[in-house]
Amino acid sequence: MAKIIDGKVISKQIKDELKEKVAGLREEGKEIGMAVIQVGNDPASSVYVGNKKKACEYIGIRSESYELPEETSQEELLALIDRLNRDDAVHGILVQLPVPEQIDEDTVIKAISPKKDVDGFHPESVGALSIGQKGFVSCTPAGIIQLLKRSGIEIEGKECVVVGRSNIVGKPMALLLLRENGTVTITHSRTKNLKDVCKRADILVAAVGRPKMIDASYVKEGAVVIDVGIHRNENNKLCGDVDFESVEQVASAITPVPGGVGPMTIAMLMHNCVEAAVMFDE
Ligand code: NDP
């Protein structure tokens, strides 16, 4: 039976470490500020934004929130981002995605200063990751590396297979595993013999966006399985991209949904915000 990798416990550890660091910075006279922008009032986005503000409060980061109406124009949003880019009291800027259709997501992402890009979505941040320079890393994959490291799972030399190649999960995940000296394969909807490829993995990351698709037939005995997916099943219960019940019989370690990767995303967002206050300030 697989060991459960507990994202709630590990994310709490990270948040507590950050809380201490933030208290130390405050003693040196440095207060960390994060701006959280939401356009419109999509209920799921409101929940995410609320959780992010709560995490800021817990850690001691000052959060400024901007709740803009649904009909906000792109120019208005860009003007706000421009003002926040120039505000020294704001170290991180987060625009909750998705934005309404009159606003182009890529333009908004590019407008945020790479020095305040705590989501790690700016092309400069992505480029820095791919050539090994300093910059922010997308929070979900960064959180997965922490889950592995803090669970004592070695990445170096391991066969790592990532299912999914999105810009926010699959691709940065693969780059991070490579940075940790894993031997990395990225798979996607056009991959041939997906099961065979997945079965090679010592570490298998499922970011495919299909409920319970990865069952035991995709998993090598003793593999570590990380489930990024979040879905609601027919009974309105959360489930992931991995069929937990069958995979836990063959894996050596597995993340549950909920309580695995999910809580790590916000913890790493907080980590990035603290980094923003020190990384570019030397
Ligand atoms: P996307 O839909 O952007 O990407 C899914 C990827 O899976 C694509 O690369 C796609 O391939 C690939 N794929 C789809 N079907 C198959 C298939 N049958 N076989 C092989 N590959 C396939 O999703 P995201 O990366 O944004 O998210 C993935 C999951 O993670 C979702 O469930 C999402 O809700 C969840 N998520 C969870 C987060 C968290 O905090 N826990 C944060 C972000 C996402 P192709 O490129 O060829 O189309």
Detailed description of the structure:
The chain has 282 residues and is of the alpha/beta class. The protein has helices at 7-27, 43-59, 74-85, 105-111, 123-130, 139-150, 170-179, 194-199, 244-247, 262-279; strands spanning 3-4, 33-39, 62-68, 92-95, 159-163, 183-187, 203-206, 224-227, 231-232, 238-239, 253-254. The strands form three sheets. A six-stranded parallel β-sheet has the order 1-11-8-7-5-6. The chain has a three-stranded parallel β-sheet with strand order 3-2-4, sandwiched between helices. α2 crosses α10 (262-279). The protein binds NADPH dihydro-nicotinamide-adenine-dinucleotide phosphate. NADPH dihydro-nicotinamide-adenine-dinucleotide phosphate binds next to α10.
